[in-house]
Amino acid sequence: MKKLEKKDINQEVFDLYDDYAHNIIQRRDFIKKLSVYAVGGITVSSLLSFILPDYLNSVQVQPNDPRLDSAFIQYESPKGGGTINALVSKPSNRNAKMGGIVVVHENRGLNPYIEDTARIAALDGFITIAPDALSPLGGYPGNDDDGREMQRKRDKTEMLEDFIAAYEYLKAHPDCNGSVGVVGFCFGGWISNMMAVKVPALSAAVPFYGSQPKEDIDKINAPLLLQFGGLDERVNKGWPEYEKALKEAKKEYTAYIYENANHGFHNNTTPRYDKEAATLAWSRTMDFFKEKLGEAQPHRK
Question: Can you tell me the distance from the alpha carbon of 89 to that of 127, in angstroms, rounded to the nearest whole number?
Fold first, then answer.
């Protein structure tokens, strides 16, 4: 069987996966449409295996990394009922207070990629919190398909309140200097945009390919760093109107569009990952947070 590489995959396959990952098409239709591209020694099963997330082999910072103090905590869900589980991570040898970052997952709960991202951010000298919005339903179920189905059962505005509560938890944490920002991906990008609208004291927001707020943009106080994939037509179509509103309201923002990068380009567990774009976008994100949340001293090997 042919070993697939990213260059072997037609862009339409990535677009199909984007539709599937965002509940625009169901799994049966996704596989049926995927079969069109199973040619020349490429099978549907090999396409599926290649394009779906590989969490096991993609972790960059292990959960027990000695450079970090990383553990799950619980806080009350303001409107969703019950408690929210969240991963809190910080450098293990840092005594001074540090800036805080809320790390917001995609539309499938707190999967290993987002946990890993929160730990990576903590290694740059921040205290991070990565909540699981699926907690009231039992938490991330261990696979993205079921996670998406579970997340669809929750009201998105209630989940927004859960992440705002995470902001409040972090802001009051004894190891936080009181400056808290948010970074989110996909659904988390929308949450990041909305937290900028809803939280007047938010210190910074970095939405990665997140859909845009439609109103109350004049209420935004936090500086924004917006990251877009150039091939992400679904999300990007809302950017011109959002940018116009930000300009009219004289808000502080910087936007980057990474040419030839797909939606999800930062996620290193799927072939949509674009290493060059992801590395640059993350470097810009950390520099932005260091500027807006207070300089942090990296804790690396």
Answer: 6
3-state secondary structure of 48: helix
Supply the DSSP symbol for 57. T
Domains and CATH numbers, the chain: 6-51 (no CATH), 68-293 (3.40.50.1820)
**Quick one: 239 exposed, middle or buried, by C-beta within 10 A (0-12, 13-18, 19+)?**
middle
Go through the chain and tell me how many residues it has: 301
Give bridge partners of residue 128 from the DSSP assignment. Answer: 89, 101
More confident residue, 35 or 140: 140
**What pLDDT, on a 0 to 100 scale, did the predictor assign at position 80?**
67
Radius of gyration of the chain (CA): 19
The pTM score is: 0.93
How many Å apart are CA 119 and CA 128, to the nearest integer? 8
Q: How many CB atoms lie within 10 A of CB 287?
A: 12
* CA pair distance 174, 196, nearest whole angstrom: 23
